[in-house]
Amino acid sequence: MNYTRRVLENGLRVLTIPMPSFESATVMAMVGAGSRYETTKNNGISHFLEHMAFKGTNKRPSAMEIASMIDGIGGEFNAFTSKEVTGYFVKAAKNHAELCLDVLSDMLQNSKLDALEIEKERGVILEEINLYEDTPSRKIGDVYESLLYGDTPMGWDIAGRKDVIRNITRQDFVDYLSSLYSAKNIVVVVAGGIIPEKIEAMAVNYFGKMPSFDTVSYNKVDENQVKPSLYIKHKDTEQVHIALGFRTVALEHPDRYALSVLGSILGGGMSSRLFSEVREKRGLAYYVRTGSENYQDVGNIVSTAGLDPKRIEDGIKVIIEEYSKFASGKAEITKTELAKSKEYIKGHLVLEEEDSRFMAAFYAQNELLEKQMETPEDLIDKIMKVTMEEVEEVAKKYFKKETLNLAIIGKFKDKAHFEKLLKL
């Protein structure tokens, strides 16, 4: 897919992805600011600020005014925060692209951060944290990465800690903005039925005067795991949730493509090995899946499952048995299985390419986090070139007892019982 890239005088980058058959367009502003840039005193502020951006600007004083304007063009708007980026977007009919750029630039540059709105949104954030706590199938991923990365920004929940959220002030937001929301740390992407030249001119108008300054950097994760690790989050649940996996590689490491295929073979869909072994053959879980995650400096591959509390040991053993087959070179991957797993990844990406919002986020994140732009076609090409030998090699390289990790959400206290299971 063709795209254009322009760097404004203030360092802000503008990407346009024309999708000629689309009558809509997504306008997205993504900032290289996420929870890994936080401290113990402001943990959760990245996500909190994302909420506050929609609560009014000098030009549009209230959340209702912003919402009414987007509703008035039949559009949708939202935002998201991860450990490494924060994104804000508006999706609407393509003829409203300029209004979308206007609104997003206004939100990023002129947010009122009204004290009363901060107090109201504080309650919303606290309830969102409660929601995640009461949804263990979503929470298990956070618990797993807390085990991996410990008491560091990478190990903290993106939503933050309640005691910190209760005490964040307006000045904290101002300080955070002045440390990361620099023009040269922002990329604006417009994807859909647009004319690139017109969008670039609009971007200069709305973002061209945004201040540029040096931003703070993150602390790299220090990984020195030498033995299996276990963490149990005690919670009275009807279903036990586990995350079981290994440390792997950073975003730009060439092994990540083979690791993605390995994850697909293990737990990518209803015909994957773990789905077959854990759910279909033994009825141990409702869901079981495997995913490969890569950050700027670290990565991991993990299988998650929701299990019957009385049969959790069986579930863990089955997953470890599958891991052991790959670690020992006895997995016996077939050509058909390899091809299917690559097509599974390709097919899902092709479907996502039909969504301008996905395309905007894909290009924005690549621009911010990777040294060289990788288009969806580039990614598909690299996935399809992964060989049987490469999959077997990464399995042997990263599936090691020393870096095996297990996180559990459930009503258990006896760690020793589970620690005995952590062996390949």
Topology:
Blueprint: E1 4-7, E2 13-18, E3 24-31, H1 45-52, H2 63-71, E4 76-81, E5 86-93, H3 97-110, H4 115-133, H5 136-149, H6 162-165, H7 170-180, E6 186-192, H8 196-207, E7 229-234, E8 240-247, H9 256-267, H10 273-280, E9 285-294, E10 299-307, H11 312-327, H12 335-352, H13 356-369, H14 376-384, H15 388-398, E11 404-410, H16 415-419
Parallel strand pairs: 2-6, 7-11
Antiparallel strand pairs: 1-2, 3-5, 3-6, 4-5, 8-10, 8-11, 9-10
Helix pairs in contact: 3-8, 9-12, 9-15, 10-11, 12-14
Overview of the structural elements:
This protein is α+β, with helices and mostly antiparallel strands and 424 residues long. The protein has 2 domains: 4-207, Cytochrome Bc1 Complex, Chain A, domain 1; 229-419, 2-Layer Sandwich (Cytochrome Bc1 Complex, Chain A, domain 1), CATH 3.30.830.10. 43% of the residues lie in helices and 19% in strands. The chain has 16 helices and 11 strands. The chain has helices at 45-52, 63-71, 97-110, 115-133, 136-149, 162-165, 170-180, 196-207, 256-267, 273-280, 312-327, 335-352, 356-369, 376-384, 388-398, 415-419; strands at 4-7, 13-18, 24-31, 76-81, 86-93, 186-192, 229-234, 240-247, 285-294, 299-307, 404-410. It has a 6-stranded mixed beta sheet with strand order 1-2-6-3-5-4, with helices on both faces. Strands 7-11-8-10-9 form a 5-stranded mixed beta sheet, sandwiched between helices. Helix 12 runs antiparallel to helix 14.
